[in-house]
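Newbie here. two chains, one complex. Structure please?
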Amino acid sequence: MAEIIQEEKQKGGKRKPKKHSTHIDMTPMVDLMCLLITFFMLTTAFSKPKVMEIVLPEKIKKNEKVEPPKIADSRTLNIILGPNDKVYWYPGKADAAALVPLQETNFSATGIRQVLLDRNRALFKKIEQFQQDVISGKINIKQDSLRSAIRKLKTDDDTGPIVLIKFYKKSKYKNLVDIIDEMSIVGIARYIITDINWLEDNMVERALGVPITSAPTAHK
Amino acid sequence: MPKIKIPHKTPHVDMTPMVDLFSLLLTFFMLTATMRPSEPAPIDTPMSVSETPSPDANIMTMVLSADNKVFFNIDNGPDTILHFRPKILQEMGKRYNIEFTPQELRKFEKYSSSFGVDIKNLKSFLAAKEPKDRAQYEKGIPLDSLDNQLAMWVLFARQVNPAVKALIKGDSNADYPIVKKVLDILQDKNVNRFSLVTTLEKVEVVDAKK
């Protein structure tokens, strides 16, 4: 990209002192800059990844005796995540004598979200109303304390469902994130991730139509 | 008849504004750039509605790849003079009776992306110069009950840097049993609060039966 700057020749005998043009050739500089800009643009990680915080209860030590918390069967909702993004759920407690059929649904907006929303409508409405009031200026509250105010609403709630989330062995990591996400979308106050028991394993396998693998002796 | 000579002029474009603009852009990108370390395995994080940004320092990351390998990464602390990485490696070396030379410790400190290497192979992993040579050692960190190295990494990371936060960066298609294993290891080491790395996705909740 060289460039020649021509100097005009003067006619006549008189020679004026040569006028050097003060022009600097910037082409190589531009070349280099283009290269650097492209490099930095491609290596920059613009959007920072987001994180979702979860807290699990402390593990019970082997020699420690802890009474399991008493939960009303009417409030519990069991969600079992199956293979291929399938979601199974049943209310109450699984009983080997009287098996409740599993309801099958999915992760779409009309799937498990509606089920949860139906059960959590009171709290969801309360949170939504609260947020509306903050936006419209009825309640004057700082943005930081909004979060803790919503958390307070959630801890005070004693009507919403208690969701037990269980995973069938063929579910994916994505399902774990999706279901916790649903919990925060619908504003479920109480949910926990627990181990699946053999009975529920059987129920999923029956629903899937695969041979049943777990037996009562395998687990407690 | 003499030919009329057309003065031969090179067309000249004034590049000053262009250079101005480029310098500006270059400065901007250089200042905002945070280098993205190359990961040994491509991770496609799942989507969520969470808007909390991930912390900058004091993090240990458990990376779960789609083929169910576990990688581990720990940062050097909020200040570079803290040298957390070599300290953790030294502790690991003591535990597994491997002596790491100062050169190896320095190399480990500089190597900023996550690693999935058995501690016994870590010496040759650090000695490898080309990424191609390194790849053969990246088999995932052993975490079965016989040889639970991930638990040891977590333990020493927390001993050296008590403020460390646990981050799980999993691929969407990682199987749940491996996630469960990692969660169990964390809970065994009394880490009950941790974060899952996700990508932001907007979701509108419509209550159909309002």
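Moderator note: Chain B has one domain: 47-200. Strands of chain B lie at 47-48, 52-53, 59-64, 70-74, 165-170, 193-200. Thread marked as resolved.
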